[in-house]
Amino acid sequence: MQDFFMSNEDRVFRSEIRDFLQRELAPHAEAIERDEDWEAVKRVVRALGQAGYMRLMFPDLYQGSLPKPGLTHATMLSEEAAYLNYAFETTIATALSCAFPLHAYAQPEVRERFLTPILDGTAIGSICMTEPNVGSDSAGMETRVRFDSTTREWVIDGFKRYISNATKSDVYIVWGITDPDVAPQKGMTAIAVPAGTPGISFPRTYDFMGRRGCAVGEVTFDNVRVPEDHLLGEENKGFRIMLGAFNFERVILGGSGLGVARSAFDIAKAHAQERDSFGQKLGQKQLIWDMIAQMSWRIDAAELLTYRAAKMYDAGHDGKELMREAAQAKLVSTETAVFCSDRTVQVLGGDGVTRQFGRAEQIYRDARALPIVGGSSEMAKYLIAAREMPAIKPNL
Ligand SMILES: Cc1cc2nc3c(=O)[nH]c(=O)nc-3n(C[C@H](O)[C@H](O)[C@H](O)COP(=O)(O)OP(=O)(O)OC[C@H]3O[C@@H](n4cnc5c(N)ncnc54)[C@H](O)[C@@H]3O)c2cc1C
């Protein structure tokens, strides 16, 4: 598509980040998928950090050549990385989700200790919200956080699941209930917990159908104690910190979905134009045209919605002002990734479901997580409808 929303600087940046990832990530993409090669993931994260790309979201800390870095560029990074390997992209997107509250809410020494290494690409982070009884609905959160006034430490007890980067992280942002007598939204607190703190354990790493190469697992916090200054923001104000990151995460996920969708589409187009069928190119058949046309307009719609939301964020819109647009970007891009990966397999026929003939089957497996993570498609639809009908409270 003609990238409608982009300035010349944005276009130059896209080409720069694309070249960078071609050089640094593409040679490792197969090993990340096939061997779950974490050393390769770490090498590429380090290269991104050293080049300054992990700082795009934090203009006050950025030292590169862009005059106005922001979410637009971080989303381009996600899109281009997901195009090559979605598992890798989830590692950096999660590290950024961890960096975001550290940047905004950590006390200076804690911020320096945990944020700087993530931005330099020498450390990885996790965000720990989901629990067995807490997924789409945070109201059932069972993790408890209490302040021990004798030792002046925060004490965390709980069990988190589906945590990206689980066993690999250097720091965890953990949400738990500090005041069980009020609604969870009013009694939730966020704490930064360094890896290696006694009481952290990893009961299980998940074996996913796709996204192979990113470590996602369970994390248990059993009487985990961290110093007083590891509190993020204020006690009982953790829900606001959680909400504050949602718009940015949804826009980044718009970029992830777009990258996955585009990688599938390119495979489908190449195959349709090369493969002979019934004495003609496969791409000449009307039913194949239908699939190509549908992938094309869905990808353009996803791109427009994603970069509209990113540009709005960079222009200072956030919170409720951006909720509908960020949710639309996430919903349309991630559903488009599923659609395109499925249609691409269909265009390829047997080659599409065979591991020996390219990446179509991998992209199909990878794409399926996208409408679930970071707030499901159903939750995104509630957010969109809620903004369209502000007088009515959605019946969740
Ligand atoms: C690969 C992967 C990585 C993840 N990484 C992280 C991470 O790093 N940190 C973290 O905290 N979490 C993480 N998650 C968890 C993810 O955010 C949750 O899986 C997601 O929010 C959905 O929650 P759930 O799985 O408990 O499903 P549920 O909430 O049980 O929902 C199940 C289904 O029901 C639908 N549903 C639920 N409520 C309603 C309703 N009211 N109306 C209509 N439909 C509804 C949902 O949309 C979904 O389709 C990850 C998950 C995956 C799969």
Query: Can you tell me the CATH topology of the largest domain?
Result: Butyryl-CoA Dehydrogenase, subunit A, domain 3
What's the story with the biggest beta sheet? 4 strands, mixed
Q: Helical amount among residues, as a percent range? A: 40-55%
Report the portion of residues in β strands: 5-15%
Number of domain units = 3
Bound molecules: flavin-adenine dinucleotide
Give the C-level CATH assignment of the largest domain. Answer: Mainly Alpha
Shape: globular
Work out the number of β strands. 10
Number of helices: 11
Task: Explain this structure.
The longest helix has 37 residues. The two termini are 37 Å apart. This protein has eleven helices and ten strands. The strands form three sheets. The protein has a four-stranded mixed beta sheet with strand order 1-4-5-8. The relative contact order is 0.11. The chain folds into three domains: 113 residues, Butyryl-Coa Dehydrogenase, subunit A, domain 1 (Orthogonal Bundle), CATH 1.10.540.10; 112 residues, Butyryl-CoA Dehydrogenase, subunit A, domain 2 (Beta Barrel), CATH 2.40.110.10; 149 residues, Butyryl-CoA Dehydrogenase, subunit A, domain 3 (Up-down Bundle). Helix 1 packs parallel to helix 4, helix 4 packs across helix 7 and helix 9 packs antiparallel against helix 10. Flavin-adenine dinucleotide binds next to strand 1, strand 3 and helix 11.
